[in-house]
Amino acid sequence: MELILATNNDHKKSEITAILGNHTILLPNELDVPFDHEETGSTYFENAYGKAKTLYDLVHRPVLADDSGLVVPAIGGEPGIYSSRYGSGEARRMLGQKERNAYLLQKMKKITDRSAFFVCCMVLILEDERFFACQETVHGRITLEPSGTGGFGYDPLFYLDDHGKTVAELPEDTKNRISHRGQAGKRMESIIIDIEREKR
């Protein structure tokens, strides 16, 4: 299936392409479609569906969107749905990836319970009133300092006990298999297979 991905992020396209390798993934700019969506939802689903619906209304073709975030229970579930904008209110500007990581580590400086989990919600819209959604998690803990150069976002801070590494230290194929986005992608792949089977 050809899917238009509701993002302008090349790195996210690479990840989704690796996860959904049997499908063609295109970005809006590859179709010369200007895409922008303000994330105003209060849940991962609301944000993912909002992005998907905004793009679907422009292209009227199958659209895939996701919203994801890091949840740290010890600090009230932050950064949560605000993960990509974390700390920006205090700084009065959008922080870069390394700055957000440093902000989180500073906030957790005296916290001993460092358990955390990533969340990813995926939404596929096929028609105006026909959509599918799935949401998955992966659990780990926050390190005391960044480690690893792979991935993006909070990956250098997210340690997986089962693998003895941060997500940023994992080989890309391993990350794409076990990550929150990878798990949600597996669920979505099953849905797409069923949809394509119906057409035969």
Structure description:
With 200 residues, the chain is α+β, with helices and mostly antiparallel strands. It has one domain (2-199): Maf protein, CATH 3.90.950.10. Helices cover 34% and strands 26% of the residues. The protein has helices at residues 10-19, 44-59, 88-91, 97-107, 172-178, 180-199; strands at 2-5, 24-26, 63-72, 78-80, 115-127, 130-142, 158-160, 165-166. Strands 1, 2, 3, 4, 5, 6, 7 and 8 form an eight-stranded mixed beta sheet that branches. Helix 5 (172-178) crosses helix 6. The mean pLDDT is 94.
Total tally of structural domains? 1
- Morphology call: globular
Low-confidence region ranges: none
Category by helix and strand content: alpha+beta
Per DSSP, what share of the residues sits in E-state strands of 2 or more residues? 25-35%
Q: What does the largest sheet look like? A: 8 strands, mixed
Rounded to an integer, what's the Rg over CA atoms?
A: 17 Å
**How much helical structure, as a percent, in the residues?**
25-40%
CATH topology: Maf protein
Number of strands: 8
What order do the SSEs take from the amino end to the carboxyl end, as H and E? Answer: EHEHEEHHEEEEHH
Number of helices: 6
* CATH architecture term: Alpha-Beta Complex
CATH classification, class level: Alpha Beta
Distance between the termini: 13 Å
